[in-house]
Amino acid sequence: MSTARRCAVVTGGARGIGEAITRELLARGTDVVVADWNATAIDEFRPPADQDGGRVTLVRADVSQEADWFRVLEVARSTYGPVTVLVNNAAISPKRDGRRTPTSEMSLDEWHSVLAVNLTGAFLGSKLVHADMSAAGWGRIVNISSQAARTGARVAGVHYGATKAALLGLTRTLAFEYGPDGITVNAVTPGRIMTPMAAGVADEVNQAMQRDIPVGRLGTPEDTAAVVGFLVSDQAGFVNGATVDANGGSWMG
Ligand SMILES: NC(=O)c1ccc[n+]([C@@H]2O[C@H](COP(=O)([O-])OP(=O)(O)OC[C@H]3O[C@@H](n4cnc5c(N)ncnc54)[C@H](O)[C@@H]3O)[C@@H](O)[C@H]2O)c1
Questions:
Q1: Which of 26, 40, 171, 207 has CB atoms 3.0–4.6 Å from 187's, for a disulfide?
Q2: What is the per-residue pLDDT for 199?
């Protein structure tokens, strides 16, 4: 299931699930531009030693800002060539003392900030890579949604749950629109995955979630990255508009 030498953009790719996706694509020989707003995560990212893998460039950028997207894509094109793989992974899930903000107390600013990153970011990226992908007659877009899109968010706030469900609508609509150009658009809905985002809540919350997972463990970032690796491969060309539930069996559609 190789992915030929191609250029990918992975948002939020310096940490957590995004970092594992970056490493998965590099191992498959894909060149990767990481767009992440966390300067510390960028500084701490250590490229793999594998000489046969892809090359990586990390750019500090906020995916909710169109100007930042222009900068990221300029770096990608001038360094590696046209962008034919996009993974919209960056997201935020604001908490107060490890708990969701009650909807009745949520400010409009907090609501807008989550929509801007989790949903508008994916819209902007998907819009701006279309020219490269359609010119190549080949493209792969993967949107990292969440099990919260299926079940409602149990730990995160209403903004997070709403954006993750909206990403599934964005995925299916783009799958119709971009499919004729040779571009597939799919979503992954991870269950509970141990990352800095998931560590933002009390241990008891994660322990309770683990009890509900038939495979008996929380997920790892690599569990999600492996699904993305398949979806961006040549072999996945007939998978389009799909949502892949990767949650250890805690939700089965
Ligand atoms: N961890 C889980 O249990 C879980 C479950 C389901 C879905 N997800 C989804 O997986 C994805 C990754 O989650 P994670 O747990 O690795 O989160 P994380 O917080 O550990 O990492 C997110 C990364 O995105 C970056 N980021 C955030 N906002 C950004 C912005 N505006 N511009 C650029 N980069 C930005 C962060 O700097 C960070 O590197 C998210 O879409 C999340 O909703 C996570």
A1: 171
A2: 86
